[in-house]
Amino acid sequence: MGSHDIDGYITYPKPVNVSGRLNTRRLGIFSAMSERHDRLRQARIASGFKTQAEAVRRFGWNPNTYKSNENGNAPFSFDQGREYARAFKVNPEWLYAASGPMRAGDGMVPIIGRVGADTEGRVVRTLTQAANDLAPAPTGGTSKSVALEVDGHSMRGFADDGALVYFENQHTPPTEDMLGEVVVLQVATGEHDADDEDVLVKRLLRGSRDGLYDLESIVGPTMRDVQVRWAAEIIQIIPPKQARRLIRRGYA
Fold this sequence. Notes:
- By secondary structure, the protein is α+β, with helices and mostly antiparallel strands.
- 22% of the residues lie in helices and 23% in strands.
- It has helices at residues 24-27, 36-46, 52-59, 63-71, 78-88, 92-97, 240-246; strands spanning 3-4, 10-11, 108-115, 134-136, 145-150, 164-168, 182-187, 199-206, 213-216, 223-226, 228-238.
């Protein structure tokens, strides 16, 4: 039965289930992330298994047990949840209790190379190579955000040994507002355009004519009248001491 509130409107008690929790199913706002079995379904699909049967065959599970677990007819234990989490490569705490991110790498970006290992400030791993080291996503970053790890002292005073340097890995030509800024860039040599030795961290300056740039080193000589294939602004630098705490090594 409804009752009249002080404003004259009729109010009704919120629908609850037998446990006393708000029955969001009846309210029509049930979220796929609000129940354990729905997270199990999400994990399966995110791992590439379109059907329950595919996952059961792949991992040798009892089909009736798994179906009951995913359909919500039989709740699974934390130990069983850990087995599902290992299979679907998700965090067991997320699967069982909606605690933390779905995957360990969520909110992280790849460290795609080391920079500054020589006086030329080169990146010493190709930008297209898959990396297993991760770092937290930068403030205001996007899906294109990546990080470089400073190796050595050729960038001392700007980014010291062990620091993280973030940029947007979009490979677009340099723009006027980048002039005078230290950027990540690739020199257009015409020979090895995708090789790591052509990727540098330099201060971008105007060259002697249109289309050419001077590249000023933090330590070392300036490169004169160079063609630049692409340039990216540095969006954040994490100092070495903090970076050491944040880097996640060897994530796969």
